[in-house]
Amino acid sequence: MCGEIGFSCSKAYRKPTSKILSIFAFATTVSLDERIGFHAVCINGTQNKTTATERIQVAYPYDLHNEYFMVPLCTTPPSGPSQMALLEGAKSSAEFYVFVGVVVFLYCLAALALYLLFDELYRSNTNIVTADFIISIVITLFWLIGSSAWAQGLVNLKYYTDFDKCGQFDEIGADCKAPNQCVQTEFPNFASLNVSVIFGFLNMLVWAGNLWFLYKETPWFKVRSKPPQEASTDPQRI
């Protein structure tokens, strides 16, 4: 069926699959909306106890540097409370990863329209075929770089949203040291972000696997695969 309408099955099914995978990749990345919660049990004197509770949003683009809570937690100095931010985030890697996913989605739409509506032009113009192959190589590299960076960014998110591991309570200071006590009560669920990393590397594998089919349509492959011409015989020499 693919041959009858003028384009290969690999092109016909590759772009819709890549488009769907790219949607899943960036959609699962931006879908997270969780909270970090902790409270400080403050000892004022010998018997007086107060509890200060803070909740901090964790959502795309995961710029935790701009997520603040007020300190000190237990006592308010005459000058008033001040803002304290979380230690680290993953803004740059998350935004780059989503950028790759959106660009690939748009390119898949444009390439699919080219395959369906302008197949004769695609097959007759070697420059378009070559450009499609080179762009696919760049997209494969972008998925590899973006997925690797986002995987490390997710590791950082998990670490810096666990206040005991990253030392955030130590940064708060006296309000979280004896006799006072700070306890983290809410932890973000990063299941959707784990899935987004998997989709990123899956996209990279799909694009890398399809490079061979694109290469077979470039003039470079056709020149190499062209059978050598047989030497012509001269009747006068026979």
From TrEMBL:
Coiled coil: none
Subcellular location field: Membrane
Domain MARVEL: 6-219
TM spans (from-to): 96-118, 130-151, 195-215
Keyword hit for Chaperone: no
Main location: membrane
Source domain of life: Eukaryota
InterPro entries on file: Marvel, Synaptophysin/porin
Membrane protein topology class: Multi-pass membrane protein
GO terms for cellular component: membrane; synaptic vesicle
The keyword Isomerase belongs to this UniProt entry's keyword annotation: no
Pfam family, one: MARVEL
Keywords from the named record: Glycoprotein, Membrane, Transmembrane, Transmembrane helix
PANTHER family per the UniProt record, alphabetical: MARVEL DOMAIN-CONTAINING PROTEIN (PTHR10306:SF17), SYNAPTOPHYSIN (PTHR10306)
Protein family per UniProt: Belongs to the synaptophysin/synaptobrevin family.
Protein name: Synaptoporin
